[in-house]
Model the fold of this input.
Amino acid sequence: MRLSQPRITPTANEEWTPEQAALMAPLVEHGSAFNIFRTMVRHPEAFRAFLTWGNYVLSQKNALPAREREIAILRIGWLCRAGYEWGQHVVIGKRSGLTDAEVEAIKVGEGTPDWSAADAAILAACDELHADQFISDATWARLAAHFDEKQRVDLVYTVGQYTQVSMLLNSFGVQPDVGLAIDPAIDGR
Done:
C-alpha cells in the first residue's frame, strides 16, 4: 500500500445523501460495498459513470474470457503497485480459474516458462501498455494469433480501466477492507 491512511475517507452508510444511498444500494445488497466504492461515492456523478464502464469491463459482455481478463488486471495492478487492487483481484482471479502458481507468476510477467503463448502475449501487452501506452506490432501479432479483434480491443479497454482504478486507489489512499490480504511485496512506498 502506498499510503497507510486514506486521503479521502470512505463514507459510512449513515452519511449518504439520498443520491449516494441509491448508488450504493445494489452494492450493499450484494455484499460488495467495499472501501473503493465508499470512497468513490463522495462524487456521485463520476461514480455513476464509473460503475457503468466498470460493470462492462467485469461483465460477460467483455469479449476477453474472465481468466485472461484477470491476468491483465492483476498484471496492471502489480505494475502500478496497487495493493488494494491486487488483493481484490487475486480473489476474483482464483474464482475465474487462476491457480496460486499463476497468480505468483503474474508478478514476474511473461518470463515465467509455464505460460501458454496466449497468456504470455497478454502479459507482454500489459507491460508495453504500462510502459509506453502502446502495444508493439510484434506483440499485437502475438495477440492476434490467439484473440479475435473484439478480444484485443477489450484487452486494451481492460488495461486502461484498471490503470485508472490503480491510480485512484493509490492516490486516494483506499485502505483494505476487513479480511482483504495485501501482498507485502507490492508495497509501493
User: Anything to note?
Assistant: The chain has two domains: 13-57, 66-185.
